[in-house]
Design a protein that fits this description.
Helix content: 40-55%
Strand content: 5-15%
Low-confidence stretches: 717-747
Radius of gyration: 33 Å
Number of helices: 30
CATH architecture of the domain at 323-443: 2-Layer Sandwich
Structural class: alpha/beta
CATH superfamily of the domain at 323-443: YqgF/RNase H-like domain
Largest sheet: 5 strands, mixed
Number of strands: 15
Mean pLDDT: 91
CATH class of the domain at 323-443: Alpha Beta
Distance between the termini: 43 Å
């Protein structure tokens, strides 16, 4: 198989582009580096294409390796024909390869193998080729007590075993059966007797049926979790319950057609087909289908998690502004931490809501002593009470013009007890570390969130049920892409943040920080080569993503790679100006013709990128900082009324809708049918994590802490426009009822 050509066809790009990317990846280049600084080589493949390319490259190489193993095994058995060789070579997926290999795969002795050893293969071939013959009559010749074939029944049993194995190991047939089964099978879940009370959260699946091929990932994962927790039993049905047992199923008919069995075939042959399907093939395909369902559901859930994580990491930062972080609490108090404009902790204190005057006095002192301009309030327990305390504090300090903002504290407690936090603040109480994290994640969400395991941030669905290796790999890729898309300040970035930069790892990141602590701030990017164990290759991969502000080389503050500085120097020489004169000077940059500076090494894409970067050096791709304004009179679920319009922040986007924080300690759900006045196939079409949205309250269930919201402008709640009907809508999928909508959330 020509792997590069195969991937090129899948991505709809040229083979040379793929081969160039493969060569770079094999040479140790990272996806961010290739996407940003090797556009000429790959023809401009972006990071999304490169990630898919890398994934497919790994899969296809594994497939090729498996092919060699299979070929060697079959050849050693002396059964490798030219036809079989070509069939294996042409195989393009692992499932099909294993289907082909199945008849030759070494296994424990089966009844069919024993029957063959006893000389029954000729009889099986005869009855399959001339199915009209009478099996009992033909079997008489093969009766042989010495071969453990004492009577006709023993002969027929052995022959049937051979035929059943023949049917079950025909690769072309199994591929057809598998495809048909996947597209027609119905998954049915039933509660296990006695588990009704313990499995209340799976109530919607106590007697549930849905076509497996179109089952949304969240429902699939919910049902599979119910099975794993031994609350539900699952089965796949391929025909209705009222189908007569004597009637041939569509699958039996496919077997009969594939082996060209005539209508006048003996009943014994048809019974053999039925037994092969029900006792052998169906069970295998059922396992395959459930495995495929899990794999697809995992992929969907991982994709949702990845999108949410990307949106969260690329949320607009407040910037380098002194901030006070408040980690709310009742009994244990409000943990507070002040950080300066670089994120360095400057003060901490624990204050208590029930001692308001004392709390206000202490907080006022911290604000004045640390020039605080923003207050970040965690959204956990006692958040609204803490918010009111902060409002009273700001009322006492009108001249300071301080703003207070509620931020997600998801994962803050995980960070507090982590090894990273312990290294950062070895002498600081664990409870106060969370307040530092809350303050910093307002200043720069990405820089702080990279210190936390993504699975603890709370932006996924069923993340503990999916393939953990695939999930971790996908989330790591998201973090890497986001960090490198933004770039980091070499002189302020933590080791955690630096470790995600292209070409660096945890060891090199720690070495950079240690070198910085010992020698002071970096003045030039080239100084990185003095860092222990950081060689030329790592420098090449990392340098363009690391920024140095106010250094000796102005270009070091930009995304222009050091390898391209020579191009800029030519521009400067031709214009007769310095780098400081050119950077950010749109009028001067307009005089430069990009094509005048291209050569064999640097093509037009690179030169255009250089000019774009010189125009706006170090431009942050993240948007403008915004925050939701919560209604001061709404702090608990009981304060909500149907029809009320509120502002909120999207905290999580699932494939069935979006969750919105409206400031009442409990996120509300905007079901997918309520996201817009049109049909929405994917919630990410409309919203993303971190968006500020306006919502209307549809239903409130205070007892179960459920809030149903709508973003629709149309007053006809729950009605989609007639010209945009729901496509492929399952009858069982709820549209407007809050209880039905929340059924999809049940874990």
């Amino acid at each position: 198989m020509n792997i590069a050509l195969t991937i090129a066809n899948e991505l709809n790009v040229a083979e040379r582009q793929v081969q160039a990317a493969v060569d770079l990846l094999d040479d140790g280049a990272t996806v961010p580096f290739i996407a940003r600084y090797r556009k000429e080589a790959t023809g401009g493949l972006d990071d999304t294409q490169l990630r898919l390319l890398s994934e497919r490259l790994h899969y296809l190489r594994e497939l090729e390796s498996r092919k060699q193993t299979v070929l060697k095994s079959i050849e050693e058995q002396g059964k490798l024909s030219d036809e079989l060789l070509e069939k294996i070579k042409a195989c393009d997926n692992k499932t099909a390869l294993e289907d082909i290999y199945l008849p030759y795969k070494p296994k424990r002795r089966t009844k069919a193998q024993i029957a063959r050893e006893n000389g029954l293969q000729p009889l099986a071939d005869l009855l399959l080729k001339e199915a009209f013959r009478q099996p009992e009559k033909e079997a008489q010749v093969f009766v042989n007590a010495e071969k453990n074939l004492p009577d006709i029944q023993a002969v027929l049993d052995g022959t049937r075993a051979i035929l059943m194995e023949t049917f079950a190991e025909d690769a072309d047939l199994i591929a057809q059966l598998r495809d048909t089964f996947w597209h027609t099978a119905i998954l049915h879940s039933q509660v296990i007797d006695g588990k009704q009370e313990d499995g209340e959260k799976f109530k919607d699946y106590f007697d549930f049926s849905e076509q497996i091929a179109t089952m949304p990932s969240h429902r699939a994962l919910a049902v599979l979790r119910g099975r794993n927790e031994e609350v539900l039993k699952i089965s796949l049905k391929y025909q209705s319950d009222d189908t007569p047992l004597t009637e041939q199923s569509v699958f039996e008919k496919m077997i009969i057609k594939h082996f060209r069995l005539p209508e006048n075939a003996d009943k014994w042959i048809f019974d053999t087909v039925r037994l092969a399907w029900r006792a052998k093939i169906f069970l295998s395909l059922e396992l395959d289908a459930l495995s495929k369902l899990k794999e697809i559901a995992d992929s969907d859930a991982i994709e949702v998690f990845s999108k949410n994580l990307k949106d969260l990491l690329l949320a607009a930062p407040l910037g380098r502004i002194p901030t006070l972080g408040l980690d709310p609490g009742y009994k244990n108090g409000i943990k507070t931490a002040a950080v300066d404009d670089t994120g360095k902790m400057t003060a901490t204190k624990i204050v208590y809501l029930h001692r308001e005057e004392e709390a206000l006095f202490e907080l006022e002192k911290i604000i004045k002593n640390n020039n605080i301009q923003f207050i970040a309030i965690g959204n956990g327990t006692a958040s609204r009470e803490t918010d009111k305390l902060a409002a009273a504090l700001l009322h006492r300090l009108p001249e300071k013009n301080i703003r207070k903002i509620t931020v997600s504290e998801a994962g803050a407690s995980v960070y507090s007890a982590s090894e990273i936090a312990a290294e950062e603040f070895p002498d600081l109480d664990v409870s106060l570390r969370g307040a530092v994290s809350i303050a910093r994640r307002l200043q720069d969400p990405m820089a702080e969130l990279v210190k936390i395991d993504p699975k603890s941030i709370g932006v996924g669905q069923y993340q503990h049920d999916v393939d953990q290796i695939r999930l971790a790999k996908s989330l790591d890729a998201v973090v890497e892409d986001c960090v490198n898309a933004v770039g980091v300040d070499l002189n302020t970035a933590s080791a955690s943040l630096l470790s995600h930069i292209s070409g660096l790892n945890k060891t090199l990141a720690k070495n950079i920080v240690a070198y910085r602590d010992q020698n002071g701030a970096f003045k030039k990017r080239k100084e990185l080569l003095k860092v222990p164990r950081l060689g030329a290759k790592a420098f090449e991969q990392a340098a363009g993503f690391l920024r140095i502000t106010d250094g000796d080389e102005p270009l070091d503050a930009s995304a222009v790679h050091p390898e391209s500085y020579g191009v800029v120097k030519k521009m400067l020489a031709n214009l007769g100006v310095t780098a400081k004169d050119l950077i950010g000077n749109n009028e001067l940059l307009k005089k430069i013709k990009a094509q005048d500076y291209t050569d064999e090494q640097f093509g037009l894409p690179t030169v255009m990128d250089i000019l774009s970067e010189l125009d706006k050096p170090g431009r942050d791709p993240r948007g403008e900082f915004k925050t939701a304004e919560f209604n001061e009179n709404i702090s608990e679920i009981k304060d909500l009324t149907v029809g009320m319009t509120l502002q909120g922040t999207v905290t999580n986007v699932a494939d069935f809708g979006a969750f919105v924080d409206i400031g009442v300690h409990q996120d509300g759900l905007v079901h997918i049918s309520q996201l817009a006045d049109r049909y929405v196939a994917n919630p990410h079409e409309v919203v993303k994590t971190g968006d500020i949205v306006e919502v209307r309250v549809l239903e409130v269930d205070e007892k179960r802490k459920r809030i149903s919201l709508s973003m629709r402008k149309n007053d006809e709640i729950g009605c989609l426009k007639k010209d945009k009907p729901l496509k492929n809508q399952q009858k069982s999928q709820p549209q407007t009822a809050m209880a039905a909508a929340f059924a999809k959330l049940r874990r």
